[in-house]
Amino acid sequence: MKIHVVAPITTPELSRAEHFTPHAREDNEVVVSILDDGPASIESQFDEAVALPDIVRRAVEAESAGADAVVIDCMGDPGLGASREVTSMLVLGPAQTSMHVASMLALNFSIVTTGESVLPMFHDLIRRYGLTDRVCSIRPVEIPVLELHVDGRLQDALFSEALKAVEQDGAHAIVLGCTGMRGWAELLTEHLAQHGHGGIPVIDPVITTLKIAEALVDLGLTPSSRTYPTPPVKTVRGYDALMDVVTR
Amino acid sequence: MKIHVVAPITTPELSRAEHFTPHAREDNEVVVSILDDGPASIESQFDEAVALPDIVRRAVEAESAGADAVVIDCMGDPGLGASREVTSMLVLGPAQTSMHVASMLALNFSIVTTGESVLPMFHDLIRRYGLTDRVCSIRPVEIPVLELHVDGRLQDALFSEALKAVEQDGAHAIVLGCTGMRGWAELLTEHLAQHGHGGIPVIDPVITTLKIAEALVDLGLTPSSRTYPTPPVKTVRGYDALMDVVTR
Amino acid sequence: MKIHVVAPITTPELSRAEHFTPHAREDNEVVVSILDDGPASIESQFDEAVALPDIVRRAVEAESAGADAVVIDCMGDPGLGASREVTSMLVLGPAQTSMHVASMLALNFSIVTTGESVLPMFHDLIRRYGLTDRVCSIRPVEIPVLELHVDGRLQDALFSEALKAVEQDGAHAIVLGCTGMRGWAELLTEHLAQHGHGGIPVIDPVITTLKIAEALVDLGLTPSSRTYPTPPVKTVRGYDALMDVVTR
Amino acid sequence: MKIHVVAPITTPELSRAEHFTPHAREDNEVVVSILDDGPASIESQFDEAVALPDIVRRAVEAESAGADAVVIDCMGDPGLGASREVTSMLVLGPAQTSMHVASMLALNFSIVTTGESVLPMFHDLIRRYGLTDRVCSIRPVEIPVLELHVDGRLQDALFSEALKAVEQDGAHAIVLGCTGMRGWAELLTEHLAQHGHGGIPVIDPVITTLKIAEALVDLGLTPSSRTYPTPPVKTVRGYDALMDVVTR
Amino acid sequence: MKIHVVAPITTPELSRAEHFTPHAREDNEVVVSILDDGPASIESQFDEAVALPDIVRRAVEAESAGADAVVIDCMGDPGLGASREVTSMLVLGPAQTSMHVASMLALNFSIVTTGESVLPMFHDLIRRYGLTDRVCSIRPVEIPVLELHVDGRLQDALFSEALKAVEQDGAHAIVLGCTGMRGWAELLTEHLAQHGHGGIPVIDPVITTLKIAEALVDLGLTPSSRTYPTPPVKTVRGYDALMDVVTR
Amino acid sequence: MKIHVVAPITTPELSRAEHFTPHAREDNEVVVSILDDGPASIESQFDEAVALPDIVRRAVEAESAGADAVVIDCMGDPGLGASREVTSMLVLGPAQTSMHVASMLALNFSIVTTGESVLPMFHDLIRRYGLTDRVCSIRPVEIPVLELHVDGRLQDALFSEALKAVEQDGAHAIVLGCTGMRGWAELLTEHLAQHGHGGIPVIDPVITTLKIAEALVDLGLTPSSRTYPTPPVKTVRGYDALMDVVTR
Predict the structure, then answer these.
(1) Nearest to C110 by CA among C120, C99, C121, C118
(2) Is the same domain home to C104 and C176?
(3) pLDDT tier at B172 (50, 70, 90 boundaries)?
(4) Is the pLDDT of residue E106 over 70?
(5) Are E46 and D80 within 8 A, CB to CB?
(6) Cα–Cα distance, C236 to E166 (Å, whole number)
(7) Which of A130, D140, E20, E155 is the most exposed place for a label (fewest CB within 10 A)?
């Protein structure tokens, strides 16, 4: 099995295969690629707009290279629909996947994310996925994506906001609201337990999506071709690198 | 990994380990148990009522015997909540799991199930799981659970109703509406493709749930203890076999 | 008219005919029965699981003994669907009935119940009954069912939480969230009025359900046999006492 | 007990005490009044507009005359809110009451009403009462209110449309969609049973509302004064007959 | 173009043509009329009941006098449906129009209105218009309609509640909740900007409705005659002034 | 006033200023631009992906050139959010605008669009805009965007599908589902009237959006900067033409 992680950004160090391999099954070869053209990180619909064409290109290339599935490494699920339209394999986004998994395990969930500016994107996704009644609250840590790893601020803010989600908002589960928060689920679970809230699931969205992808690949399930029909062939100006791989 | 399938019925031949092992990962030892006390099959809320105590007993016993997860082998998800309350492991039901998976892959889905009499149970589950807007239609084949395998009727009825779901109702995916329909997903997918509807996902609920369980066990995710708190200790009359294992 | 109250617990002193007779019409003979097998009280889905078979037995026996209606004396409405399936008479649950009555009288309502652990059960019922948009808040008094009557704690906690529901949450009506709180509606109404909140309806669920049952019996209305179809005859292992009365 | 039926029309023969007395409890004295000013029947929002002031006057007069409750005898529930604001007693409307009762007894319900022109009014009420997901279909018999009783057309059309609601639309219960259809519930129930659909509840809205009113009067429940606050005193031009009774 | 503003009250000084003309296009002649019979202001469903007949009369008269559209100058949208039924022109209400405009511009909106007593009317309208998920909060300034202009209280209260809506409730836009607050949008926008919340749209409902009316008149769009069918001709007692103009 | 129409395609003849000028106010100078890079037409999420960067560039350029508003000339509303983030002016999309206008005028509406393949995009938009309960049906004419004008097929198919929407589905209004159907509203309105359905509003989405834009520009209303916050400055690789204008 080969699962390709597409990090929809141009910053090289944020997503590496060794981040995923420890969580992958032995029979799953994880490959990671970033974009040639696109934003350093995604924190707006504008950032998504300039990420989209190259996300789709990476997805098509992954399929050509034998991937069984693509996982988009961003909680905005950018390019999910377009990539599903132009490939025949499984493509998953971490927002959709992790919110559905949270809905399987708990009455409701809160999302702890980067900054207030991404809240509208989350509300938009939640409405599209039909999960409005499941969302307890969305709390930002107010740290930009590219600074999540630079100093020790993330731990304090993440722990503090997740605790408020549980104690003040009534959250039954926590979804980490940025794939750049990868790796914090276990520590946060323990932190919550130490404060009297054992057994609150904390969902690491991109790792969860990788594992769900493994399961769905085994099952042979791919996105509905009726929801994501193959686009009609037509002239596209520009985007030569993309059109080269799509039209082959 | 050890995943325990609890078939919430007393009919021995319907669920056997060899039904699941071909789909399980090599590192997953699948065990199946049926009930001592309960109904021959589940087709009503009454049937569920007399299945519940022994489902919970089987779940507790499975955990004691080292199971990492329990999968309840019935599309009514009977005993899902109670079993989650009295265990600390993962417990999944095929209705909840497969409907969320379908929602990840398609705009909407139709359910093809056994008889009209189980429609209210489905509508009840769909409301509880908050997926009303995702359900396109529910179509019965009008074959009782215990007769699904006895003659050739299932194939014709299943193919016919699924095709109507796609062509008349507008379904983008199909969820098999009884775990006794296990094994038909591949053939039905081909049948739909032969009629011009390639790429419609057909979800085999109990096998899908088994695979999602494998993924969630790897992730260490279990149901929220806030949604499913441990019941307070109290006197229970009767149900000695159950209370023996719960109170140990 | 004969209305049978089934208290789905094994604790004898909590539900007695004299609790209901003062509220019943003169032409209504109220009979109360408790369970032989089951829990001392219901505060979890597990408790419900071990109450269900005997609730259904009591409902069937009541119909055989000439009851016009059964009222299930628990805010979880346990066994409501199964009892409706195997009888032809009216069966009502206090959660469903009182929440619909509250919806007739007020823009929204808050529920004041026993402990935080039953909140998920309420949310589940509210989703099933389609009343999510009507619920203002659910507030627990944090007193176990079996201790509601043992000391003076209930009054203070009930008054305090109901007042918070009105003043802080914006409740337009209050539904008592445990049938064990029977009898407190009038005093709580006065308490709210003394604090400047006259005219807030306080609904005593089981008494309200008894009265609605009287009305519906007069009207000859019973649950839909399409929503609650008669279960197909099939083998059931165990539950002899129940199967004896169901299959007669 | 004294329950006052306000028929919000000026046509004298449509609502008479003897229509209600056979259904009322012996201790309930039913009084009926019609309007001095208003429409001959209600089939539009315009008709409601010219009925409202006198409906409110009749409700206030009823309370002054000792009524325990007012039932508005029209499926548009005209004047329900305004009458609740200016009185302290119970006021019920048959649309709200009967749709909530139907929701207690069945998964969904269809409404069989007079003409297509009143469908928007029903959809408006259904949205206000939050019952959109409960409504299966609304079918008109295409007979004006004032002709419901003049020839034999109603029976055929009512039977035919109700049968279609059950067989084609999947209705689990039927609500008669005009209080002028009072008295047809029993015959329609039999008709459906003769066509293989026994046990489908048919709800006669105004009679059902009368009986629910009896129950709620016994319980001392009245509409929330927070949802229906007493209007501030202010100058009103015209409507002397109404203002005389309101301001006394 | 001629747009007629119907102020559904009998207080002469509150709505004058010069309030609207500065906002109207040059080719739009704005005419304003108030009621002969009706309330001094509208703050309850009762007030609406006694305003309705004359609102409808004013709408019909406006059409006869050549109006292209009527704008009802009250946030309860009283008489909107009835006026649409008996005319062929455009009729708009400021609640419906401004809440839809707010929904085009922002994720959610808060309403700042007069008193707590009108909150139920707003919730009722919001449910009818299907915008429940768009409303962030409704905050009253607790100043009666007729006192909005008498002293300086409005500015402080309006600024304070709008700021709380933005900072505490999370509002992305503000809708002024009474047409008597006409003219405050610009100042409130500046006030919010001075407190660090630039770019929050503040919607002046009646002026916005006037402008949307101009656009829809240009487009030739009028309300659906299927949603608002012409009422059948029938006898109406009283309301001679109205019936004279309707039946001509 | 200057309103800029951005046709998010590279096909020059489909959107020209003379298409819009006859509908614009005299004081409104309409400018139209198409994309340098992008698809010939938009019929998939893939097409949208390759249109987005240049749509945003055109919006930014329009603002720099003094535009008061941008109207995106495509029913997928592509780039609406991103364009709102990076400009301070009004930006409107025809899907959002026309569906809200339809909701102001009718109980529900049907959309008649190009092909079945765009239905998922509509359902996605409808969920995001929260208008699911307003949509009666979506019917395709099965003509590709670029062939809408090439032969006489459109009129027959459009008339036929709209009539089915009204007669079979129960539509109260029609929204044309492709901005390439611009200009057909009047003829379709007449066609429906000739078949007995006078008074059904037919909404031409892009013209309607142009007119609503004129109204909102007069009002000084722009999208909420809280819903569409200015994206943080960051490195973007590629998209030089866009980044040149955004960062100036």
Answers:
(1) C99
(2) yes
(3) very high
(4) yes
(5) no
(6) 60
(7) E155
Which residues of chain D have a CB within 8 Å of the CB of F172?
A: 120
H/E element, A140: strand A135-140
Torsions phi, psi for E187 (to 5 deg): -60, -40
Q: Are A20 and A1 in contact (CB under 8 A)?
A: no
Indicate if E139 and E216 belong to the same structural domain. Answer: no
Environment class of residue B248 by beta-carbon count within 10 Å: exposed (0-12), middle (13-18) or buried (19+)?
exposed
Q: Calculate the CA E230 to chain-centre distance.
A: 23
Q: What is the mean pLDDT of residues F131-155?
A: 93
What is the C-alpha to C-alpha distance for residues D230 and D181, in angstroms, rounded to an integer? 34
Residue D152 and residue D69 share a domain: no
Q: Is the pLDDT of residue E248 over 70?
A: no
**Residue type at A75 in one-letter notation:** M
Are both F101 and F192 inside the same structural domain?
yes
- Residue E141 sits in a domain whose CATH number is 3.40.50.12500
**Over residues D219-239, mean pLDDT:** 96
The answer to whether residue A127 scores a pLDDT higher than 60 is yes
Are C161 and C62 in a shared domain?
no
How many domains is chain D built from?
Answer: 2
Question: For residue B107, what is the nearest residue in chain F, using CA coordinates?
Answer: F120
Contact C120 A107 (CB under 8 A): yes
Residue A108, C-beta contacts closer than 8 angstroms, at least 6 positions apart: A134, A135, A136, A170, A171, A172, A173
Give residue A187's pLDDT band: very low, low, confident or very high (50, 70, 90): very high
Q: Alpha-carbon torsion A143, A144, A145, A150, what sign?
A: negative
- Cβ neighbours, 10 Å, residue F182: 20
Mutate to test the interface with B, among D132, D133, D135 (most CBs of B within 10 A): D133
ipTM for the predicted complex comes to 0.97
CA distances from E22 to D113, E16, E17, E210 (A): 48, 12, 9, 11
Q: Is C20 exposed, middle or buried (0-12, 13-18, 19+ CB in 10 A)?
A: buried
In this prediction, residue A171 carries a pLDDT of 98
Chain A and chain F share a number of CB contacts under 8 A equal to: 146
**Cβ F71 vs Cβ F209: under 8 Å:** yes
CB contact under 8 A, D238 and E36: yes
Q: Which domain holds residue F238?
A: 2-93+207-246
**Residue-level pLDDT at F33:** 97
- Chain B residues in contact with F123 by the CB 8 A cut-off are 107
| Residues B86 and B30 occupy one common structural domain | yes
Q: Which amino acid is located at F114 in the chain?
A: T
N- to C-terminal Cα separation, chain D:
24
Listed in sequence order, the residues at least 6 apart from D218 whose beta carbon sits closer than 8 Å to its beta carbon are: C23, C25, C211, D1
Look over chain E and give the mean of its residue pLDDT values, rounded to a whole number.
96
Q: Report how far residue E134's alpha carbon sits from residue E123's, in angstroms, rounded to the nearest whole number.
A: 12
CA atoms of B216 and C96, how far apart (whole Å): 35
Task: Give mean pLDDT, residues E181-192.
Answer: 96
pLDDT 10s digits, E136-150: 999 999 999 999 988
Residue-wise pLDDT tens digits, E4-53: 999 999 998 888 999 999 999 999 999 999 999 999 999 999 999 999 99
Which tens digit of pLDDT belongs to each residue from D134-186? 999 999 999 999 999 888 899 999 999 999 999 999 999 999 999 999 999 99
Amino acid at B14: L
The nearest alpha carbon in chain D to E235 belongs to D40
Residue of F95, F105, F182 whose CA lies nearest to F145: F182
Same domain, C212 and C239: yes
CA E1 to mean position of chain CA atoms: 20
Of the residues A123, A124, A129, the best mutation for testing chain E's interface (the one with the most E CB atoms within 10 Å of its CB) is A123
pLDDT at position B231 over 70? yes
